[in-house]
Amino acid sequence: MMDKTAVALKYDQEGTSAPTVVAKGKGSIANKILEKAQEFEVPIFQNEALANSLLSLDVDEQIPPNLYKAVAEVFVWLMNSEKKAQIS
Q1: What is the pLDDT of residue 12?
Q2: What are the pLDDT tens digits along the chain (88 aa)?
Q3: The domain that contains 30 carries what CATH number?
Q4: How distant, in Å, are the alpha carbons of 14, 16, 51, 78 from that of 47?
Q5: Coil vs helix vs strand at 81
Q6: How far apart (Å, rounded) are the C-alpha atoms in residues 21 and 26?
Q7: Would you tell me the crossing angle of helices 48-55 and 68-87 to the nearest 10 degrees?
Q8: Which of 29, 35, 31, 37 is CA-nearest to residue 59?
Q9: Which residues pair with residue 25 across a beta bridge?
Q10: Full residue range of the structural domain in which residue 44 is found
Q11: d(Cα 14, Cα 45) in Å, to the nearest integer?
């Protein structure tokens, strides 16, 4: 069984900058990131390839342009999840 991987992103919709990595890790660190996300009811999007690409970035580093499309899909999913949660 492979270690879990987790990457947390922050995006300020008011700002013009790209999303930023705020936490990342594998194994026990990934588990702690996922536990915190669940504790604060942050939706978890699973995409192993994207997570592995984001792991190469430093914390507080903005995502590079080549990952914009993949990360935009995550934010669209997140917005749709929030809309569904408001309806139910």
Answers
A1: 82
A2: 568 999 999 988 777 789 999 999 999 999 999 999 999 988 899 999 999 999 999 999 999 999 999 999 998 988 888 787 777 5
A3: 3.40.1690.10
A4: 26, 25, 6, 13
A5: helix
A6: 14
A7: 120
A8: 29
A9: 6
A10: 5-87
A11: 23
Phi then psi for residue 20, to 5 deg, are -120, 140
* CB 55 within 8 Å of CB 33: no
E strand or H helix at 88, and its extent?
Answer: none
- Structural domain total, the chain: 1
- What's the rounded Cα separation, in Å, for the pair 12 and 75? 12
19 touches 71 (CB < 8 A): yes
Q: Quick check: 53 and 67 in contact, CB under 8 A?
A: yes
Q: What is the pLDDT of residue 1?
A: 52
What backbone torsions phi and psi does residue 64 show, to the nearest 5 degrees?
A: -80, 160
Distance, CA of 52 to chain centre: 11
Identify each DSSP E strand in 36-75 by its residue range: none
